[in-house]
Amino acid sequence: MLYFLTGTSHLKSKRLKKNISFNLRWHRRVGLSIMVVLVFLSITGILLNHSPAAGLSKKILSFEWLLDWYGFETVALTGFEVGKQWIYHPGDRELFLDGQPVASCVPPLLNATRTDSFLTALCKDELVIFNFNGELVEKINTLSGLPEHTTNMRYLDDTLLIQSHNEILSLDINTLEIEPSELIIESWPLPSSLPSTIVDELKQSSQLPGISLETVILDLHSGRFFGDLGVLFVDFMGLLTVFLAMTGTYVWLMKRRKKLAKRHKKHLKRLKKAAKAS
Questions:
Q1: Nearest CA to 92 among 79, 107, 81?
Q2: pTM value?
Q3: b vs e for 87-124, b when ≥16 Cβ sit within 10 Å of the residue's Cβ?
Q4: How many Å apart are CA 107 and CA 79, to the nearest integer?
Q5: pLDDT at position 245
Q6: Residue 111 structural domain
């Protein structure tokens, strides 16, 4: 009887040892394969937990590749130099003159020029007239007389000329009368790259599109930064973490069971010796 019990115990112990070895092997493999991801998720989680104190939501990133990745339209940092001043449109509704918003108009900014008395800016179906200090004088749109599809503008020979449907027209700024012109325009003013000082001002004033550092870290943490596949990957990592927890618990329970089996085996040996002695 004791021999039968000892043999059965030995088989169970051998099977238990094999199960523990198998689970440990896969536990190590899975653990090593997701170690880097778990460290990354831990770091991003800690950063997000301290985001208010670190001010991550206030740190705006405006890298061109990042904006393109998030689907933002890249704003062309160009404008028109009129004398010693710059007129530009960052991409929202505000029209700027040397860092100061002067009027609202629908982008894009098609052209801008300087007359003897005023500055003029041509936006989409809208002409804005303001003085050299940036004070608004007049706005003309298609409802108030501006021809539709006006695409260009130039000040030449004391005359403000506009182009609509390949037709050259003259615009009297004082009376706002528009008449056909016989002048031939060989070239129209072209936009130029904005000075670095103006670009820096736009970035600091958040006039340019950007992504907060907090949003980027949150999207990296959740996997949304890489789209639907990124989310599924993070979910898969979560399932593997659950697998690690389960296999780790199983191995611990099996080792505990093995210890109990050893104790039971020792107890059986003592009983066998006692039986022989008697």
A1: 107
A2: 0.55
A3: bbbbbeebbbbbeeebbebeeebbbbbbeeebbbbbbe
A4: 12
A5: 78
A6: 75-208
